[in-house]
Amino acid sequence: MNSSFSHSFPAIRGVQAGREYYVSMFPLRLIPKLFVFDEDELIPELRAQRTLNKSRVPEISRYILDNRNSYVFSALTVSINGDVRFDALASNEDNKRIGLLHVPMDARFIINDGQHRRAAIEMALAENHDLADETIAVVFFIDKGLERCQQMFADLNRYAIRPSRSLGVLYDHRDDTARVAKLVTLRSPVFRDVVEMERSTLSMRSRKLFTLSAIYTATSSLLINTDTKTVDEVANLAVDFWEEVAVQFPEWQCVRENKLTAGDIRQGYIHSHGIALHAIGKVGNILLKENPKNWKEKLKDLKKIDWTRSNAKLWEGRALSGGKVSKAGHNVTLTINVIKKCMGLELSPDEQRIEEAFQRGDHV
After folding, report:
1. Which alpha helices (H) appear in 102-258, and where do they start and end?
2. Which of 94, 111, 194, 357 shows the smallest number of beta carbons within 10 Å?
3. If you average pLDDT over residues 257-277, what whole number do you get?
4. What Pfam family is a match, any one (predicted)?
5. Residue 284 has pLDDT above 90, yes or no
6. Does residue 293 register a pLDDT over 90?
7. Is the pLDDT assigned to residue 142 strictly greater than 80?
């Protein structure tokens, strides 16, 4: 070893691709002190990982602080640029993998995966010192140069595919809106058995009519800033609302009764797409607030709208872009405008601005 002084960590030794690597546990208070990023001023070709997206850090930090009894972090992956020595506790086969990893103090640690977690830990520690002695796993690889570090980053992220939004909602037990969306899907005859719970896109052959992520978005829009109630009460209100909406769209019932396929309905009608649910949810939010006693009566106006996709004069540029359904923000707003006009509801200033731009043929 090149240095008379070294860090010593308890570690477990393993082998991947013929190379030794090590796994250890570190108290959170040491993470910001030991592990650093590449210098910000280096150009991408000379860095070993992406630059820090500072907007993500407060969100991750808040996740830790708001879920002190249930937060979960996966291991950091770190390269060591220096000569290390591993001293096994014993020479027998069972124990030679466990020992002390000695790292020179002049060696450099570079995070290959986990730089946002590291920054979030630092931010969370500044707010709550009780986190200091909690631990996180760290996987150490021996740095064989910049090219090796960059290849590790590429390999570690090559198959790091985010789960679908529907699956994220399905497995989220913290978000009350996710809980409500799942309760609505399970309780309502409208959605039972016709909601795709894992995927966020539907193929033409899918027998499902909606995705859980679409139900989540629409129900979230429906319930925003409504009177605070229990999750159970809010779910019952949402079920009541969507069942009344379904009465206006007999095609949904035909799918549940196997008289028509879900694919045919999605192909033929706008009202069976997430953009329509989102728009109806937003308008429904206004009805619940402004017409708490007769909102069901107002929903009957949905029948007056020609929801067929073939009605390009109405939907092209609104819910459709080049004949394909578009969920862009301005498309949702222009779909809301159709519903509001049909119901005799006043457009908000932003909705009016987008509508006027659409009528002029301007790009929103």
Report:
1. 115-127, 146-158, 165-171, 176-187, 212-223, 231-247, 250-256
2. 94
3. 94
4. DndB
5. yes
6. no
7. yes
Which amino acid is residue 103, in one-letter code? V
- Decide: residue 177, CB within 10 A, 0-12 exposed, 13-18 middle, 19+ buried: buried
Nearest one of 158, 141, 161, 137 to 149, comparing CA atoms:
141
pLDDT at 43: 43
Return all residues near 335 (Cβ < 8 A) that are at least 6 apart: 270, 275, 276, 278, 279, 318, 319
**Which pTM was predicted?**
0.73
Which residues on adjacent β-strands are paired with residue 78?
A: 111, 140
What are 150-205's pLDDT values in tens digits?
676 677 667 666 778 898 888 888 888 999 999 999 999 889 889 999 988 898 88
Residue recorded with tokens 């907007």? 55
Domain assignments of the chain as residue spans, ordered by start:
6-158, 165-360
Over 60: is that where the pLDDT of 146 sits?
no
Hey, which residues does 140 pair with through a beta bridge?
22, 78
Q: What is the DSSP string of 251-270?
A: HHHHHHTTSS-HHHHHHHBG
Q: Which two tokens stand for residue 328?
A: 């862009």
CA distance 64 to 80: 27
Query: Encoding tokens for residue 269?
Result: 């009608």
Give the separation between CA 331 and CA 316, rounded to whole angstroms: 10
- Strand-pairing partners, residue 22, are 13, 140
Which pair of structure tokens corresponds to residue 206? 């899918």
CA count, 13 A, side-chain hemisphere, 334: 24
